[in-house]
Amino acid sequence: MESVVSELEGTLLKDSDPFSYFMLVAFESSGLIRFALLLLLWPVIPLLGLLGLEDAGLKLMIFVATAGVSKSEIESVARAVLPKFLMDDLDMAAWKVFSSYEKRVVVTKMPRVIVERFVKEHLRADEVIGSELWINRFGFATGLVRGGSLHAVCERVAVLFRDEAPTLGMGRRTGSCASFLQLCQTQMQPPIIANQNHDREFLRPHPVIFHDGRLVKRPTPSTALLILLWMPLGILLATIRIMVGLLLPFWAVPYISGLFGGKVIVKGKPPPAVAPGNSGVLFVCSHRTLMDPVVLSSVLQRKIPAVTYSISRLSEILSPIPTLRLTRTRHVDAEMIKHELSKGDLVVCPEGTTCREPFLLRFSALFAELTDRIVPVAMNYRVGFFHATTARGWKGLDPIFFFMNPRPMYEVTFLNQLPMEATCSAGKNPHDVANYVQRILAATLGFECTNFTRKDKYRVLAGNDGIVASTTSLADRIMKLAKTFKPFLH
């Protein structure tokens, strides 16, 4: 069996410095204070490296990022937050070489628990060799590690390959790599890997579809400093923007919001307001943030009620439009939506939850059963610093974080109302109607349609993705989708 042992930092990942990943752990597990403290210590870490004490600098990062944090919280960040940033940093040239071998082992200088989920599930590695965090009997990290020395790494690689030396070793001739490269039959360094004409068959990494966390960009030292400096101004700006939305009439919001950095791009022709006494239009939107219905209402310059699934009470209080909280009991929700449509227009996001990546989740078919006046609306957004919705943490902060971004931008595209022959009134199956709407919205946005549901998202983010009540496991479905995930080839 041909085998490969590869360094993670600086080889499979383009960046050899793990500092930004520890900043993510600090921010997502503990908040702003630990994040700021680790950034404050950043000048010390490269200084220790220049003095030949790189290992001491690494241990300092680990200690500040993890000391006193529960093991479950560290695992949650490693599962839900880090894979997105690690995937963005993946060196595809190195990946092609690495994935073409049958047995794949990764060596990392980060604690194993931080990267194991990503390396095994997305890079398809068989083993991960890294230091182990010391966890006390109460389940909290002490910030200390064991098993990360050069000798320990070399010894663990030797144990894995006691019968036959690894076919290929990939890594730089510094740090932990110097210990395991000498055990390999062939050695390959990153500059050579990038220029390698590789004709072996290789796999594709599993795409990251679901991820969580507040930060949009990987917090390198410069980015982290910019975020910290922006926070006070961002909080003030968010307060002003929210007050503008609550106090001003809706027709004025699109004009005033531009003065405070917001931008909304409208495409297509929105339908006119229905006459009093007539049944309303059901706007079926892709779901990117909890702000989707609010932005839609501001574009239409009238307050349109929105169907909600699980937003916080604070978000409902701050909402400038009426909200209709579903019970998740199908017949009760159907009657509620029908009653609301009899009074006027309504907004629904049939995915049931947000998805940040360019994918659409499976649409619930309930909306298709209730009306034939369906207008699909493609919603998309761009933010610079903070994501507007999270599955972890307090959801009441979602609208505040959205408005804390320097220049939040929304793009709203109105599609034509579904023709009568494409609705259930013409005898169409509700699931076929829902799938059709999903496809045309995905085509408009340039997204991929998936069969994943809200439950799949929370199973992945909660670490229960192996428990899927269907004939096809979530892992198999991700593999099937990965076969058509073309952007990873470029």
UniProtKB/TrEMBL annotation:
Domain annotation Phospholipid/glycerol acyltransferase: ranges: 281-382
Stored SUPFAM superfamilies: Glycerol-3-phosphate (1)-acyltransferase
Annotated Pfam families: Acyltransferase, HAD_RAM2_N
GO terms (BP aspect): cutin biosynthetic process
Transmembrane regions: 32-53, 224-251
Gene Ontology, cellular component aspect: membrane
Keyword annotations: Acyltransferase, Membrane, Transferase, Transmembrane, Transmembrane helix
UniProt xrefs under InterPro entries: HAD_RAM2/GPAT1-8 (IPR056462), Plipid/glycerol_acylTrfase (IPR002123)
Membrane topology: Multi-pass membrane protein
SMART domains assigned: PlsC
GO molecular function, one term: phosphatase activity
Location within or outside the cell: Membrane
Family statement: Belongs to the GPAT/DAPAT family.
Protein name: Phospholipid/glycerol acyltransferase domain-containing protein
